[in-house]
């Protein structure tokens, strides 16, 4: 088993593609002088490729309709894997009855060789992720488990390696692959959606994952428009570039509108008091300072961040396209690290957009006031989206922290102010979010 999952190169059906090979190699190159030279060469190659061939989203496992969301996720695994599915489907009641640890300790050690294809692997990663978080946090914050038993750790790390994801519940699991239609013949609408797995607190967890999913689907047209914009720039087609910028702004607006659904679907007290604990990881977490031991896999404990929408590839694609460069002395390291928690193909798309021609420079060079306005509008809407997000974080985290508000009778009370004052991923919350927002604003073109 490899020592870490960061930048792991994985063989997906799409790796035969030139882009993919280049982006994967760029991402997996380390920090030595030789590899930095290699990375620079690769960036230049990628830049040339984006210029000459444009971007084909399919090659990055991004769909026109759903963006980064996994289309048609499977909801069940073959018979052999029912011991996992039986536990994963009943995570809320097993946690409430404090039985999940004993059930997992009795689980047989299953092989991952029978998992067929990407969708089965994604469902296995999702199921094992829910089981893992339930196992670690069954007793709330008081007695987290410091180790995962062999029957869980070994297959989880194997399937993680196959997917190029870390062995912890990530956004690509709990949001992007954790959905189904209630009526399989119906459309994908908020009323016809349900999660595959959930945590205690029923409606809160379901609402949080599904609203995030709807926000992510709203991003799909914007990601498509980024590809169009890059292609238009290489053809010097200003009309098409203008249309694409309008579509990007519209998509960002739709994301903000979808975000508003959070308020009717997720109660702040339930979110803070019940759900949040199950999203906590074991990196920068004072409750698990030594990290997590994956028995039967590694001798030493490992440190992985918890699930956060900061692992959404969509927002980072918008940032890279608009030329927003976060502060390397502050926010950027965390945001870059979150890329290691994304599926490699999605991470590769961010890298390809970053390596492509600069939209901002191109637009300024055209001298077109219309294009500058359309670009500024995209930036303004992204700032508004980030402002909306900050206000939501105040409502769902800062206010409950200050009030010490938790749902009555809930055993998952968060006592540790060290955890409470930080984000799920362990960042100094408000300063971080405001700095990211302010950096976004800084790219506005002033001299029009
Ligand atoms: C109740 C709802 C939400 C809460 C309480 C919340 C909380 C947080 C927190 C605490 C962070 C700081 C990073 C960390 O510690 O992990 C963060 C970052 C982030 N969140 Fe959320 N979040 C919510 C919903 C969403 C949704 C629906 C999205 C969009 C898909 C989103 C996108 C982001 C992004 C992109 C970041 C990184 C900072 C940035 O790029 O502006 N969040 N969020």
UniProtKB/TrEMBL annotation:
Keywords of this entry: Iron, Metal-binding, Tryptophan catabolism
A Pfam family the protein falls into: IDO
Protein name: Indoleamine 2,3-dioxygenase 2-like isoform X1
Superkingdom as given in the UniProt entry: Eukaryota
Family of the protein in this entry: Belongs to the indoleamine 2,3-dioxygenase family.
InterPro entries: Indolamine_dOase, Trp/Indoleamine_2_3_dOase-like
The keyword Secreted belongs to this UniProt entry's keyword annotation: no
Claim: Iron is one of the keywords in the record: yes
Gene source species: Huso huso
């Amino acid at each position: 088993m490899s020592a870490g999952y960061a930048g792991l190169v994985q063989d997906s059906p799409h790796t035969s593609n030139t882009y993919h090979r280049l982006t994967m190699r760029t991402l997996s190159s380390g920090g030595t002088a030789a590899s930095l030279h290699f990375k620079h060469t690769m960036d230049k190659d990628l830049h040339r490729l984006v210029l000459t061939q444009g971007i084909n989203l399919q090659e990055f496992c991004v769909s026109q309709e759903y963006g980064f969301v996994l289309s048609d996720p499977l909801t069940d695994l073959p018979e052999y894997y029912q011991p996992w599915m039986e536990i994963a489907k009943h995570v809320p009641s097993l946690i409430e009855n404090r039985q999940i640890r004993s059930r997992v300790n009795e689980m047989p050690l299953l092989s991952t060789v029978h998992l067929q294809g990407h969708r089965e692997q994604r469902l296995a990663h999702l199921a094992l992720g829910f089981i893992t978080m339930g196992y670690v946090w069954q007793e709330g914050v008081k007695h987290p488990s410091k180790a995962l038993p062999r029957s869980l750790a070994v297959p989880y790390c194997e399937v993680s390696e196959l997917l190029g994801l870390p062995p912890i519940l990530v956004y690509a699991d709990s949001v992007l692959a954790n959905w189904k239609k209630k009526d399989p013949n119906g459309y994908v609408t908020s009323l016809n959606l349900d999660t595959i797995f959930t945590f205690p607190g029923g409606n809160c967890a379901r609402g949080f994952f599904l609203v995030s999913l709807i926000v992510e689907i709203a991003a799909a047209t914007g990601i498509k428009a980024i590809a169009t914009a890059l292609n238009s720039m290489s053809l010097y087609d200003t009309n098409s570039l203008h249309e694409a910028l309008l579509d990007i702004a519209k998509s960002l607006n739709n994301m903000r509108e979808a975000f508003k659904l959070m308020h009717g679907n997720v109660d702040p007290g339930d979110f803070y008091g019940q759900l949040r604990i199950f999203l906590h990881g074991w990196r920068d977490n004072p409750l698990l300072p030594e990290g997590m031991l994956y028995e039967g896999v590694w001798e030493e404990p490992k440190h992985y961040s918890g699930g956060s929408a900061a692992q959404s590839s969509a927002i980072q694609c918008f940032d890279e396209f608009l030329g927003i460069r976060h502060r390397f002395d502050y926010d950027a390291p965390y945001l870059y690290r979150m890329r290691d928690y994304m599926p490699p193909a999605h991470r590769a798309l961010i890298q390809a957009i970053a390596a492509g021609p600069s939209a901002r420079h191109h637009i300024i060079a055209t001298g077109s006031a219309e294009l500058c306005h359309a670009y500024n509008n995209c930036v303004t809407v992204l700032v508004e989206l980030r402002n909306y997000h900050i206000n939501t974080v105040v409502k769902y985290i800062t206010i409950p922290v200050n009030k010490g508000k938790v749902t009555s009778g809930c055993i998952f009370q968060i006592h540790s102010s060290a955890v409470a004052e930080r984000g799920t991923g362990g960042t100094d919350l408000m300063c971080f979010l405001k700095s990211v927002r302010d950096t976004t604003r800084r790219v506005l073109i002033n001299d029009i």
